[in-house]
Amino acid sequence: MLHSLLKIVLTLSISPLIRFVHGSINPVEIHEQHFFDSVTREPFFIKGVDYQPGGSSDVTSKQDPLSDPKICARDIFLFQKLGINTIRVYSISPDLNHDACMTMMAAAGIYLILDVNSPMENQHLNRYEPWTSYNHNYLQHIFEVIEEFGHYNNTLGFFAGNEIINDGHSAKRSPSYIRAVVGDMKSYIKKNSPRGIPVGYSAADDLRYRIPLSQYLECHRENEPDSSIDFYGVNSYQWCGQQTFQTSGYDQLVSAYKEYTKPVFFSEFGCNTISPRSFAEVEALYSTDMINTFSGGLVYEFTQEPNNYGLVAMDRDGTAHLLHDFVALQNRYTAIESNEFQMIRKNAISLMAAAPLPACKDKYENIQIDEQVPQDLAKDLVRKGVDQKRGKYLSLKDSDLVSEFDIYDENGVKLNGKCKMEVVNKIEILQSDDEHVSQPKESNPDPREPPRQAEKQKEKESNAASFLTLSVPSAFFWTTCFLYFALHCNAF
Ligand SMILES: *[C@@H]1O[C@H](CO)[C@@H](O)[C@H](O)[C@H]1NC(C)=O
Protein backbone atom coordinates (compact mmCIF):
# COMPACT_ATOMS: atom_id res chain seq x y z
CA MET A 1 0.00 0.00 0.00
CA LEU A 2 2.63 2.46 1.12
CA HIS A 3 4.74 1.22 -1.71
CA SER A 4 2.16 1.93 -4.37
CA LEU A 5 1.40 5.30 -2.85
CA LEU A 6 5.03 6.17 -3.03
CA LYS A 7 5.09 5.12 -6.65
CA ILE A 8 2.18 7.38 -7.47
CA VAL A 9 3.89 10.26 -5.75
CA LEU A 10 7.04 9.47 -7.67
CA THR A 11 5.25 9.39 -10.97
CA LEU A 12 3.41 12.60 -10.32
CA SER A 13 6.29 14.52 -8.87
CA ILE A 14 6.76 17.76 -10.72
CA SER A 15 10.47 17.53 -11.19
CA PRO A 16 11.80 14.25 -12.58
CA LEU A 17 14.91 14.88 -10.50
CA ILE A 18 13.20 14.46 -7.18
CA ARG A 19 13.71 11.04 -5.70
CA PHE A 20 13.16 9.82 -2.21
CA VAL A 21 15.66 8.57 0.22
CA HIS A 22 14.71 4.95 0.68
CA GLY A 23 16.34 2.09 2.50
CA SER A 24 19.90 0.90 2.65
CA ILE A 25 21.89 -0.09 -0.40
CA ASN A 26 20.83 -3.65 -1.09
CA PRO A 27 23.13 -6.24 -2.60
CA VAL A 28 22.15 -7.45 -6.07
CA GLU A 29 21.95 -11.19 -6.54
CA ILE A 30 21.29 -13.64 -9.33
CA HIS A 31 18.39 -16.01 -9.87
CA GLU A 32 18.41 -17.98 -13.07
CA GLN A 33 19.39 -15.58 -15.84
CA HIS A 34 18.54 -12.33 -14.11
CA PHE A 35 19.78 -9.92 -11.50
CA PHE A 36 17.53 -8.97 -8.61
CA ASP A 37 17.62 -6.59 -5.70
CA SER A 38 18.12 -9.07 -2.87
CA VAL A 39 15.73 -7.24 -0.56
CA THR A 40 12.96 -5.73 -2.68
CA ARG A 41 13.04 -8.64 -5.18
CA GLU A 42 12.71 -6.20 -8.04
CA PRO A 43 14.52 -7.27 -11.22
CA PHE A 44 17.72 -5.32 -11.74
CA PHE A 45 18.77 -4.24 -15.23
CA ILE A 46 22.24 -2.85 -15.65
CA LYS A 47 22.11 0.66 -17.03
CA GLY A 48 25.59 2.01 -16.97
CA VAL A 49 28.90 3.14 -18.30
CA ASP A 50 32.46 1.91 -18.33
CA TYR A 51 34.56 4.16 -16.16
CA GLN A 52 38.32 4.31 -16.33
CA PRO A 53 39.56 7.91 -16.58
CA GLY A 54 42.99 7.94 -18.18
CA GLY A 55 42.67 4.30 -19.26
CA SER A 56 43.73 1.21 -17.36
CA SER A 57 47.40 2.03 -17.68
CA ASP A 58 46.83 5.14 -15.60
CA VAL A 59 46.34 3.01 -12.49
CA THR A 60 49.32 3.25 -10.17
CA SER A 61 49.90 2.58 -6.51
CA LYS A 62 49.05 6.28 -5.98
CA GLN A 63 45.82 6.68 -7.91
CA ASP A 64 42.98 4.79 -9.49
CA PRO A 65 39.42 5.65 -10.57
CA LEU A 66 37.94 5.20 -7.09
CA SER A 67 40.66 6.65 -4.90
CA ASP A 68 40.03 10.40 -5.15
CA PRO A 69 36.86 11.50 -3.35
CA LYS A 70 36.81 14.90 -5.07
CA ILE A 71 36.79 13.36 -8.51
CA CYS A 72 34.18 10.86 -7.39
CA ALA A 73 31.95 13.68 -6.13
CA ARG A 74 32.09 15.30 -9.57
CA ASP A 75 31.56 12.10 -11.53
CA ILE A 76 28.86 10.54 -9.37
CA PHE A 77 26.90 13.76 -9.74
CA LEU A 78 27.20 13.25 -13.50
CA PHE A 79 26.34 9.53 -13.29
CA GLN A 80 23.05 10.51 -11.74
CA LYS A 81 22.42 13.13 -14.40
CA LEU A 82 23.09 10.50 -17.01
CA GLY A 83 20.56 8.24 -15.29
CA ILE A 84 22.71 5.17 -14.67
CA ASN A 85 22.72 2.61 -11.88
CA THR A 86 26.06 0.83 -12.50
CA ILE A 87 29.62 1.54 -13.51
CA ARG A 88 32.29 -0.88 -14.56
CA VAL A 89 35.87 -0.18 -13.52
CA TYR A 90 38.71 -2.03 -15.27
CA SER A 91 41.42 -1.74 -12.68
CA ILE A 92 42.08 -0.43 -9.25
CA SER A 93 44.93 -0.75 -6.81
CA PRO A 94 43.98 -2.58 -3.61
CA ASP A 95 46.69 -0.60 -1.80
CA LEU A 96 44.57 2.53 -2.02
CA ASN A 97 41.56 3.47 0.04
CA HIS A 98 38.19 3.40 -1.74
CA ASP A 99 35.84 3.88 1.18
CA ALA A 100 34.85 7.47 0.44
CA CYS A 101 34.08 6.86 -3.24
CA MET A 102 32.23 3.62 -2.54
CA THR A 103 30.17 5.31 0.18
CA MET A 104 29.19 8.11 -2.20
CA MET A 105 28.28 5.61 -4.88
CA ALA A 106 26.20 3.61 -2.44
CA ALA A 107 24.44 6.75 -1.22
CA ALA A 108 23.79 7.74 -4.83
CA GLY A 109 22.44 4.29 -5.73
CA ILE A 110 25.30 3.33 -8.07
CA TYR A 111 26.63 -0.25 -8.23
CA LEU A 112 30.11 -1.34 -9.24
CA ILE A 113 31.26 -4.18 -11.47
CA LEU A 114 34.97 -4.52 -10.97
CA ASP A 115 37.65 -6.26 -12.97
CA VAL A 116 40.13 -7.82 -10.57
CA ASN A 117 43.09 -7.46 -12.94
CA SER A 118 45.35 -4.54 -13.74
CA PRO A 119 48.11 -3.93 -16.31
CA MET A 120 50.68 -3.87 -13.52
CA GLU A 121 53.11 -6.72 -13.09
CA ASN A 122 51.70 -9.89 -11.49
CA GLN A 123 48.19 -8.50 -11.75
CA HIS A 124 46.89 -10.12 -14.94
CA LEU A 125 47.17 -13.28 -16.99
CA ASN A 126 49.48 -13.40 -19.96
CA ARG A 127 47.06 -14.47 -22.70
CA TYR A 128 49.63 -16.43 -24.72
CA GLU A 129 51.59 -17.97 -21.87
CA PRO A 130 49.14 -18.00 -18.98
CA TRP A 131 51.29 -20.49 -17.05
CA THR A 132 53.94 -17.76 -16.59
CA SER A 133 51.48 -15.48 -14.83
CA TYR A 134 49.13 -17.85 -13.01
CA ASN A 135 51.06 -17.91 -9.75
CA HIS A 136 50.93 -17.05 -6.08
CA ASN A 137 51.51 -13.32 -6.56
CA TYR A 138 48.76 -13.07 -9.11
CA LEU A 139 46.29 -14.89 -6.90
CA GLN A 140 47.33 -12.78 -3.95
CA HIS A 141 46.46 -9.67 -5.96
CA ILE A 142 43.03 -10.78 -7.14
CA PHE A 143 42.10 -12.00 -3.66
CA GLU A 144 43.12 -8.65 -2.18
CA VAL A 145 40.70 -6.95 -4.56
CA ILE A 146 37.94 -9.37 -3.54
CA GLU A 147 38.73 -9.03 0.15
CA GLU A 148 38.43 -5.27 -0.02
CA PHE A 149 35.45 -4.84 -2.34
CA GLY A 150 33.42 -7.83 -1.17
CA HIS A 151 32.53 -5.84 1.92
CA TYR A 152 30.65 -3.13 0.04
CA ASN A 153 26.98 -3.84 -0.59
CA ASN A 154 27.16 -2.01 -3.91
CA THR A 155 29.78 -4.30 -5.41
CA LEU A 156 27.54 -6.02 -7.95
CA GLY A 157 30.12 -8.45 -9.28
CA PHE A 158 33.69 -9.14 -10.31
CA PHE A 159 35.09 -9.78 -13.75
CA ALA A 160 37.74 -12.48 -13.68
CA GLY A 161 39.04 -11.25 -17.02
CA ASN A 162 38.44 -8.90 -19.91
CA GLU A 163 39.06 -9.96 -23.50
CA ILE A 164 41.85 -12.33 -22.51
CA ILE A 165 40.90 -14.38 -25.53
CA ASN A 166 41.06 -12.13 -28.56
CA ASP A 167 42.74 -14.19 -31.28
CA GLY A 168 43.45 -17.75 -32.35
CA HIS A 169 46.56 -18.07 -30.25
CA SER A 170 45.01 -16.91 -26.98
CA ALA A 171 41.97 -19.10 -27.75
CA LYS A 172 44.27 -22.12 -27.67
CA ARG A 173 46.11 -21.26 -24.50
CA SER A 174 43.93 -19.32 -22.12
CA PRO A 175 40.45 -20.83 -21.73
CA SER A 176 41.38 -23.40 -19.06
CA TYR A 177 43.20 -20.72 -17.11
CA ILE A 178 40.25 -18.38 -17.21
CA ARG A 179 38.05 -21.12 -15.87
CA ALA A 180 40.61 -21.85 -13.14
CA VAL A 181 40.72 -18.19 -12.08
CA VAL A 182 36.92 -18.07 -11.94
CA GLY A 183 36.98 -21.16 -9.73
CA ASP A 184 39.63 -19.68 -7.44
CA MET A 185 37.71 -16.44 -7.08
CA LYS A 186 34.49 -18.24 -6.28
CA SER A 187 36.21 -20.43 -3.70
CA TYR A 188 37.76 -17.36 -2.10
CA ILE A 189 34.41 -15.58 -1.94
CA LYS A 190 32.65 -18.63 -0.55
CA LYS A 191 35.18 -18.99 2.23
CA ASN A 192 36.01 -15.36 3.03
CA SER A 193 33.42 -12.88 1.79
CA PRO A 194 30.33 -11.79 3.72
CA ARG A 195 28.02 -12.70 0.83
CA GLY A 196 28.08 -14.51 -2.49
CA ILE A 197 29.33 -11.86 -4.89
CA PRO A 198 28.93 -13.04 -8.50
CA VAL A 199 31.94 -13.65 -10.74
CA GLY A 200 31.87 -13.25 -14.52
CA TYR A 201 33.96 -12.84 -17.64
CA SER A 202 33.88 -10.09 -20.25
CA ALA A 203 34.32 -11.32 -23.81
CA ALA A 204 35.83 -9.60 -26.83
CA ASP A 205 33.65 -8.72 -29.81
CA ASP A 206 34.64 -11.72 -31.91
CA LEU A 207 31.99 -14.25 -32.82
CA ARG A 208 34.50 -17.06 -33.37
CA TYR A 209 35.27 -17.22 -29.66
CA ARG A 210 32.56 -15.34 -27.86
CA ILE A 211 29.87 -17.97 -28.07
CA PRO A 212 31.92 -21.16 -27.55
CA LEU A 213 33.72 -19.49 -24.66
CA SER A 214 30.42 -18.54 -23.04
CA GLN A 215 29.35 -22.18 -23.21
CA TYR A 216 32.63 -23.46 -21.83
CA LEU A 217 32.60 -20.99 -18.92
CA GLU A 218 28.95 -21.73 -18.17
CA CYS A 219 29.00 -25.52 -18.13
CA HIS A 220 28.89 -27.69 -15.05
CA ARG A 221 31.72 -29.97 -13.98
CA GLU A 222 30.96 -32.59 -11.41
CA ASN A 223 34.37 -32.43 -9.75
CA GLU A 224 34.63 -28.61 -9.77
CA PRO A 225 31.12 -27.37 -9.09
CA ASP A 226 32.33 -23.81 -8.36
CA SER A 227 34.28 -23.16 -11.51
CA SER A 228 31.51 -21.95 -13.80
CA ILE A 229 30.85 -18.25 -14.18
CA ASP A 230 27.85 -16.51 -12.63
CA PHE A 231 27.34 -14.03 -15.51
CA TYR A 232 28.72 -13.30 -18.96
CA GLY A 233 29.65 -9.88 -20.30
CA VAL A 234 29.60 -9.34 -24.05
CA ASN A 235 31.55 -6.48 -25.60
CA SER A 236 29.63 -5.53 -28.72
CA TYR A 237 30.16 -2.73 -31.19
CA GLN A 238 27.97 -4.00 -33.95
CA TRP A 239 25.17 -1.44 -33.83
CA CYS A 240 26.54 1.66 -35.56
CA GLY A 241 24.30 4.63 -36.30
CA GLN A 242 20.76 4.08 -37.56
CA GLN A 243 20.14 0.36 -37.35
CA THR A 244 17.35 -1.90 -36.22
CA PHE A 245 17.18 -5.00 -34.08
CA GLN A 246 17.53 -7.03 -37.30
CA THR A 247 19.99 -4.99 -39.37
CA SER A 248 22.38 -4.67 -36.44
CA GLY A 249 22.45 -8.42 -35.93
CA TYR A 250 21.22 -8.01 -32.36
CA ASP A 251 18.53 -10.54 -33.26
CA GLN A 252 21.25 -13.15 -33.79
CA LEU A 253 22.93 -12.22 -30.54
CA VAL A 254 19.67 -12.82 -28.76
CA SER A 255 19.22 -16.21 -30.44
CA ALA A 256 22.77 -17.16 -29.51
CA TYR A 257 22.15 -16.53 -25.80
CA LYS A 258 18.47 -17.40 -25.57
CA GLU A 259 19.13 -20.66 -23.78
CA TYR A 260 21.94 -19.32 -21.63
CA THR A 261 21.37 -20.16 -17.99
CA LYS A 262 23.19 -17.12 -16.53
CA PRO A 263 22.67 -13.39 -16.88
CA VAL A 264 24.22 -11.92 -20.03
CA PHE A 265 24.73 -8.21 -20.60
CA PHE A 266 26.79 -5.84 -22.70
CA SER A 267 29.95 -5.15 -20.74
CA GLU A 268 30.84 -2.64 -23.47
CA PHE A 269 28.71 -1.17 -26.24
CA GLY A 270 28.42 2.05 -28.22
CA CYS A 271 29.96 1.92 -31.69
CA ASN A 272 31.42 5.32 -32.61
CA THR A 273 32.16 4.93 -36.31
CA ILE A 274 29.15 7.15 -36.92
CA SER A 275 29.48 10.19 -34.76
CA PRO A 276 27.89 11.85 -32.87
CA ARG A 277 26.29 8.76 -31.44
CA SER A 278 22.52 8.56 -31.04
CA PHE A 279 22.50 5.37 -28.95
CA ALA A 280 19.41 4.06 -30.67
CA GLU A 281 20.44 0.57 -29.53
CA VAL A 282 19.49 1.49 -25.98
CA GLU A 283 15.83 1.32 -26.88
CA ALA A 284 16.27 -2.18 -28.33
CA LEU A 285 18.36 -3.39 -25.41
CA TYR A 286 15.66 -2.61 -22.85
CA SER A 287 12.69 -3.67 -24.98
CA THR A 288 10.77 -6.95 -25.17
CA ASP A 289 13.06 -8.06 -27.99
CA MET A 290 15.96 -8.40 -25.61
CA ILE A 291 15.12 -8.25 -21.93
CA ASN A 292 14.48 -11.94 -21.54
CA THR A 293 18.01 -12.63 -22.68
CA PHE A 294 20.02 -9.48 -21.86
CA SER A 295 20.23 -7.76 -18.49
CA GLY A 296 21.13 -4.35 -19.89
CA GLY A 297 24.56 -2.99 -20.56
CA LEU A 298 27.39 -0.55 -20.07
CA VAL A 299 28.30 2.13 -22.59
CA TYR A 300 31.94 2.53 -23.45
CA GLU A 301 32.93 4.95 -21.95
CA PHE A 302 32.48 7.82 -19.53
CA THR A 303 35.57 9.97 -20.03
CA GLN A 304 36.91 11.16 -23.36
CA GLU A 305 40.22 9.46 -24.18
CA PRO A 306 42.30 9.36 -27.38
CA ASN A 307 40.07 6.63 -28.89
CA ASN A 308 37.12 9.06 -28.89
CA TYR A 309 34.43 7.08 -27.07
CA GLY A 310 33.88 9.60 -24.28
CA LEU A 311 30.73 11.23 -22.94
CA VAL A 312 32.55 13.86 -20.89
CA ALA A 313 35.86 15.60 -21.60
CA MET A 314 37.96 16.42 -18.56
CA ASP A 315 40.55 19.20 -18.39
CA ARG A 316 43.74 18.70 -16.45
CA ASP A 317 42.42 20.93 -13.68
CA GLY A 318 39.32 18.73 -13.29
CA THR A 319 36.87 20.91 -15.21
CA ALA A 320 34.29 18.74 -16.96
CA HIS A 321 32.73 19.39 -20.37
CA LEU A 322 29.67 17.36 -21.30
CA LEU A 323 29.80 16.18 -24.90
CA HIS A 324 26.92 15.73 -27.31
CA ASP A 325 27.01 11.97 -26.67
CA PHE A 326 26.36 12.53 -22.98
CA VAL A 327 23.07 14.26 -23.74
CA ALA A 328 22.08 11.70 -26.37
CA LEU A 329 22.62 8.83 -23.93
CA GLN A 330 20.94 10.73 -21.11
CA ASN A 331 17.84 11.09 -23.28
CA ARG A 332 17.86 7.39 -24.12
CA TYR A 333 18.27 6.34 -20.51
CA THR A 334 15.49 8.70 -19.47
CA ALA A 335 13.16 7.29 -22.12
CA ILE A 336 13.49 3.71 -20.90
CA GLU A 337 12.32 4.74 -17.46
CA SER A 338 8.85 5.49 -18.81
CA ASN A 339 6.06 3.53 -17.14
CA GLU A 340 5.62 1.52 -20.29
CA PHE A 341 9.20 0.30 -20.29
CA GLN A 342 9.08 -0.42 -16.58
CA MET A 343 5.99 -2.56 -16.98
CA ILE A 344 7.54 -4.44 -19.88
CA ARG A 345 10.57 -5.31 -17.79
CA LYS A 346 8.56 -6.44 -14.81
CA ASN A 347 6.28 -8.66 -16.83
CA ALA A 348 9.07 -10.23 -18.82
CA ILE A 349 10.79 -11.51 -15.73
CA SER A 350 7.72 -13.17 -14.34
CA LEU A 351 7.63 -15.39 -17.42
CA MET A 352 11.10 -16.77 -16.86
CA ALA A 353 11.56 -20.46 -16.24
CA ALA A 354 14.46 -22.25 -14.67
CA ALA A 355 16.85 -24.04 -17.00
CA PRO A 356 19.26 -26.77 -15.94
CA LEU A 357 23.00 -26.09 -16.16
CA PRO A 358 24.45 -27.96 -19.15
CA ALA A 359 27.22 -30.45 -18.43
CA CYS A 360 30.69 -29.68 -19.80
CA LYS A 361 31.61 -31.16 -23.16
CA ASP A 362 35.04 -32.40 -24.19
CA LYS A 363 35.38 -29.91 -27.01
CA TYR A 364 34.18 -26.44 -27.95
CA GLU A 365 34.42 -24.87 -31.35
CA ASN A 366 37.44 -22.59 -31.96
CA ILE A 367 38.78 -22.77 -28.42
CA GLN A 368 41.03 -25.29 -26.75
CA ILE A 369 40.26 -26.34 -23.22
CA ASP A 370 42.86 -28.98 -22.47
CA GLU A 371 45.69 -26.91 -20.98
CA GLN A 372 46.86 -28.47 -17.72
CA VAL A 373 46.35 -25.83 -15.05
CA PRO A 374 48.27 -26.31 -11.80
CA GLN A 375 45.80 -27.58 -9.22
CA ASP A 376 45.46 -26.25 -5.71
CA LEU A 377 47.69 -23.21 -6.23
CA ALA A 378 45.05 -21.07 -4.54
CA LYS A 379 44.23 -23.47 -1.75
CA ASP A 380 46.33 -21.96 1.02
CA LEU A 381 45.38 -18.40 0.23
CA VAL A 382 41.72 -19.35 0.16
CA ARG A 383 41.96 -21.15 3.46
CA LYS A 384 43.90 -18.45 5.33
CA GLY A 385 42.46 -15.42 3.58
CA VAL A 386 44.70 -12.58 2.45
CA ASP A 387 45.83 -9.76 4.68
CA GLN A 388 43.99 -6.80 3.23
CA LYS A 389 41.97 -3.94 4.65
CA ARG A 390 38.28 -4.47 4.18
CA GLY A 391 36.16 -1.87 2.51
CA LYS A 392 33.69 -0.08 4.72
CA TYR A 393 31.29 2.78 4.39
CA LEU A 394 32.14 6.08 6.02
CA SER A 395 30.09 8.92 7.30
CA LEU A 396 30.58 11.83 4.98
CA LYS A 397 29.88 15.50 5.31
CA ASP A 398 27.39 17.31 3.16
CA SER A 399 30.20 19.26 1.56
CA ASP A 400 31.94 16.04 0.49
CA LEU A 401 29.06 15.40 -1.88
CA VAL A 402 29.48 18.62 -3.84
CA SER A 403 31.65 18.80 -6.94
CA GLU A 404 34.51 21.25 -6.48
CA PHE A 405 35.10 21.32 -10.19
CA ASP A 406 33.36 23.41 -12.80
CA ILE A 407 31.03 21.59 -15.14
CA TYR A 408 30.04 22.91 -18.58
CA ASP A 409 27.05 21.65 -20.53
CA GLU A 410 27.21 20.56 -24.17
CA ASN A 411 26.73 24.15 -25.32
CA GLY A 412 29.66 25.38 -23.28
CA VAL A 413 27.48 26.99 -20.63
CA LYS A 414 28.76 26.63 -17.10
CA LEU A 415 26.37 24.98 -14.67
CA ASN A 416 25.68 27.24 -11.77
CA GLY A 417 24.54 26.41 -8.30
CA LYS A 418 25.89 23.52 -6.28
CA CYS A 419 26.63 20.41 -8.29
CA LYS A 420 25.76 17.99 -5.58
CA MET A 421 24.92 14.34 -5.91
CA GLU A 422 21.54 13.28 -4.66
CA VAL A 423 21.46 10.84 -1.78
CA VAL A 424 18.92 8.14 -2.53
CA ASN A 425 20.11 5.53 -0.06
CA LYS A 426 20.59 5.93 3.61
CA ILE A 427 23.95 4.49 4.51
CA GLU A 428 24.04 2.96 7.93
CA ILE A 429 27.50 2.38 9.16
CA LEU A 430 28.15 -0.44 11.50
CA GLN A 431 31.58 -0.60 13.04
CA SER A 432 32.75 -3.14 15.49
CA ASP A 433 35.86 -3.77 17.56
CA ASP A 434 36.50 -7.11 15.96
CA GLU A 435 36.43 -5.78 12.44
CA HIS A 436 39.14 -8.15 11.38
CA VAL A 437 37.55 -11.34 12.58
CA SER A 438 35.89 -12.92 9.64
CA GLN A 439 32.21 -13.50 10.02
CA PRO A 440 30.80 -16.91 9.32
CA LYS A 441 28.47 -16.97 6.36
CA GLU A 442 25.67 -18.52 8.37
CA SER A 443 25.37 -15.47 10.57
CA ASN A 444 24.08 -13.37 7.69
CA PRO A 445 20.41 -12.71 8.05
CA ASP A 446 18.22 -14.01 5.30
CA PRO A 447 17.88 -11.06 2.95
CA ARG A 448 14.32 -12.09 2.21
CA GLU A 449 13.37 -11.39 5.78
CA PRO A 450 14.68 -8.00 6.74
CA PRO A 451 14.45 -7.23 10.44
CA ARG A 452 11.29 -5.23 10.07
CA GLN A 453 11.00 -3.96 13.61
CA ALA A 454 14.55 -2.74 13.82
CA GLU A 455 14.19 -1.17 10.42
CA LYS A 456 11.05 0.71 11.46
CA GLN A 457 12.72 1.92 14.61
CA LYS A 458 15.70 3.20 12.70
CA GLU A 459 13.41 4.93 10.29
CA LYS A 460 11.82 6.80 13.17
CA GLU A 461 15.16 7.80 14.52
CA SER A 462 16.28 9.23 11.25
CA ASN A 463 15.60 12.80 10.57
CA ALA A 464 14.83 13.82 7.05
CA ALA A 465 15.37 17.52 7.57
CA SER A 466 18.99 17.62 6.56
CA PHE A 467 22.19 15.71 6.53
CA LEU A 468 22.59 14.23 9.94
CA THR A 469 25.32 12.23 11.45
CA LEU A 470 24.43 10.36 14.56
CA SER A 471 26.90 8.29 16.42
CA VAL A 472 26.55 6.38 19.64
CA PRO A 473 29.84 5.80 21.39
CA SER A 474 29.74 2.11 22.13
CA ALA A 475 31.33 -1.04 20.78
CA PHE A 476 28.79 -1.01 18.01
CA PHE A 477 27.53 2.26 16.86
CA TRP A 478 25.30 3.28 14.07
CA THR A 479 25.94 6.28 12.06
CA THR A 480 22.94 7.31 10.14
CA CYS A 481 23.57 9.60 7.30
CA PHE A 482 20.45 11.03 5.90
CA LEU A 483 20.12 13.66 3.33
CA TYR A 484 17.23 15.01 1.43
CA PHE A 485 18.14 16.06 -2.02
CA ALA A 486 18.95 19.70 -2.19
CA LEU A 487 19.57 22.21 -4.92
CA HIS A 488 21.20 20.92 -8.05
CA CYS A 489 23.16 22.72 -10.68
CA ASN A 490 20.44 24.97 -12.04
CA ALA A 491 21.30 24.44 -15.66
CA PHE A 492 20.16 20.80 -15.62
C1 LIG B 1 23.73 -4.18 3.19
O1 LIG B 1 22.71 -5.09 2.81
C2 LIG B 1 22.03 -5.73 3.87
C3 LIG B 1 20.99 -6.63 3.28
O2 LIG B 1 21.57 -7.76 2.75
C4 LIG B 1 21.38 -4.69 4.75
O3 LIG B 1 20.80 -5.34 5.86
C5 LIG B 1 22.40 -3.67 5.21
O4 LIG B 1 21.77 -2.65 5.93
C6 LIG B 1 23.13 -3.08 4.03
N1 LIG B 1 24.16 -2.17 4.50
C7 LIG B 1 24.20 -0.90 4.17
C8 LIG B 1 25.34 -0.14 4.74
O5 LIG B 1 23.40 -0.36 3.45
Automatic annotation (TrEMBL):
One annotated Gene Ontology cellular component of this protein: side of membrane
E.C. numbers: 2.4.1.-
Bilayer-spanning residue ranges: 464-487
Record's signal peptide: 1-23
Pfam families, A to Z: Glyco_hydro_72 (PF03198)
Record Gene3D superfamilies: Glycosidases
Keyword Ribosomal protein annotated: no
Biased composition (Basic and acidic residues): 434-462
Any one Gene Ontology molecular-function term assigned to this protein's record: 1,3-beta-glucanosyltransferase activity
Record keywords, A-Z: Cell wall biogenesis/degradation, Disulfide bond, Glycoprotein, GPI-anchor, Lipoprotein, Membrane, Signal, Transferase, Transmembrane, Transmembrane helix
Localization of this protein: Cell envelope; Cell membrane; Membrane
Record has Transmembrane as a keyword: yes
GO terms (BP aspect): fungal-type cell wall (1->3)-beta-D-glucan biosynthetic process; fungal-type cell wall organization
Topological type in the membrane: Lipid-anchor; GPI-anchor
Family assignment from sequence similarity: Belongs to the glycosyl hydrolase 72 family.
Known role: Splits internally a 1,3-beta-glucan molecule and transfers the newly generated reducing end (the donor) to the non-reducing end of another 1,3-beta-glucan molecule (the acceptor) forming a 1,3-beta linkage, resulting in the elongation of 1,3-beta-glucan chains in the cell wall.
Protein name (record): 1,3-beta-glucanosyltransferase
The species this protein was found in: Lachancea nothofagi CBS 11611
